[in-house]
Amino acid sequence: xxxxxxxxxxxxxxxxxxxxxxxxxxxxxxxxxxxxxxxxxxxxxxxxxxxxxxxxxxxxxxxxxxxxxxxxxxxxxxxxxxxxxxxxxxxxxxxxxxxxxxxxxxxxxxxxxxxxxxxxxxxxxxxxxxxxxxxxxxxxx
Length: 141
Fold this sequence. Notes:
Elements: H1 9-17, E1 23-27, E2 39-41, H2 51-59, E3 64-70, H3 73-76, H4 78-87, E4 92-96, H5 98-104, E5 110-113, E6 123-127, H6 132-140
Helix pairs in contact: 2-4
């Protein structure tokens, strides 16, 4: 049994298969999800879980180089917009029109659907590369 980190096997599987620049969507409850998408549906009830809760968990296991948000979120959901920047302080933020963000979902490796009802709360994470955590493991072997 896994001792720590994200215990959801589908999310763990997706993270383990992410390569450089692969996209992972953390979606609110209303985002249209392509029929052929690998969708991990976590919705339990309204705002359970939220996009921010899932992003915080992902930040501990996924190297994020950049993230995409809807530029409309800056005006319509400013607190969430700023919270995402705090979760990924070293990643580049790319604000694009919400219509473009929905198109970008089609190229994602997976979509994690949350129960979030906040407007413009969808975030697309672009995977980075981090070998720093592995160098000490390899040198100990």
